User: What shape does this take?
Amino acid sequence: MALNVSDLSFSWPGKPPLFRGLSFALAPGERLSILAGNGMGKTTLARGLAGFLTTEGGLYWQGEALNSMSRADHARLVQIVGQRPHLQLSGRGYSLREEVAFGPENLGLPVAEIRARTAEALHFLNLTHLAERDCRRLSGGETQRAALAGALAMRPRLLILDEPMTDLDAESRDALAGHLRSLPWEMAVIFLDIGWQSWMAGLVDRHLLLDQGEMHGPLTTEALFATPLPERIFLAGQPA
Amino acid sequence: MTREDTVIAEDLSFGYPGQARLFERLSLRFAPGTVVAVLGPNGRGKSSLLRLFAGLEQPLAGRISVAGVDPAGPEARDLARVAGMVAQSSDRHFLRTKVQDEVALTARNLYLPDPAALAAQALERLGITGLAAQHPLDLDAGEKRLVALASAIAHGPRLLLLDEIQRGLDRINRQKVIRLIRAEAAQGTTILAVTHDRDFAEAIAGAELVFGDDGIRLT
Ligand SMILES: Nc1ncnc2c1ncn2[C@@H]1O[C@H](COP(=O)(O)OP(=O)(O)OP(=O)(O)O)[C@@H](O)[C@H]1O
Ligand SMILES: [Mg+2]
Assistant: This one.
């Protein structure tokens, strides 16, 4: 297994636990969704799984604890894209291309490699035609795509996506889903979402449910549609 | 038509400096109580159109009337009275430390009678009365969105502009929003809702404004 999560618990000071005793494992290159309603701790869990919170319990990548890694190794291993992509852009570059290159530059990669990764990530997100645009002048969906491109340019081995496709148009969603299925490097992905989304078809077939601090599953997509779900959890394409 | 249309756009052109025009000579009319889903790919100008109706951008050519008010006119207060908006990044826009004050803000700025009662009513309509005393930034993403929506409707606007309002809302919160949109429309509010979510568009809208490859069309 690549990622091992064992008995992970977290609570904000003075509040009841958001999640407790959470355990699961992820194979290299595997894609998994974690579905939860609003206020169930989805975003906190995303940060916890990325190793950005002080959680109780174990979080290991190929046997190595995430919290004992150097910052550089941590950044090479895991990337996270959150619900508020405009907060995620560094603002350091004038153009979208420079923004996407920011991560690989910080890895100290050779220039040719930085250029290749940047071009590749822009292509994955259908952004090549906007590469010279000022990042502060992008539309909502373009900004979300920019944040995703920035993460993919790092070629992480684990990508954590917190409601990644909300503002993407159908074409960009399908394109990204397609690229995620056939990446030139091995990357496991955890998708956190409020429910099953139609772009998940063929992309992720193992789902965990987080409700009232407890984890249920994993379920296959088939089982997800056949099981009574917590009332907040949503299945796209089903009557509202 | 005996009643005046709430939204009138005539020969509207718009684009950002140094970029191709997003639309040219666009004309639209929406009657009171119409719910329009605004659909189309990223970067086509959906949010820009809402921003024009909200007076946040100026048209390059053409005219807009929102319940008789020109959004590009000199008095922001006139437009604030008739329009309400929840922007695509609404959780950036909170100004007060308590939900009840946040929701009452527009009514207060417009000197409407009893802003606190209007705020309480808006919270009640969304079933979030229990959040009244909380700090808006302490809320979860779904609650924040409902508060932003309550803030946009409390003063009783004639036009409601919603940009990806359903985004990230779980089943229960989504239902609340759908019910509220239907109730607002039944009271005569005109609603433009930009969305990438087909199911949501179908649940709320009687008409679709599609920003397509071959131009903008209303169906
Ligand atoms: N302030 C700005 N200055 C310059 N260009 C801008 C500005 N805001 C948006 N744009 C550009 O104008 C175009 C239309 O943007 P707009 O935000 O209206 O698109 P949209 O249809 O709402 O897209 P999305 O579905 O991604 O939200 C895009 O190409 C965008 O990059
Ligand atoms: Mg937009």
The domain at 3-88+154-235 of chain A is CATH 3.40.50.300 (Rossmann fold). The radius of gyration of chain A is 18 Å. The CA atoms of residues 93 and 99 of chain A lie 5 Å apart.
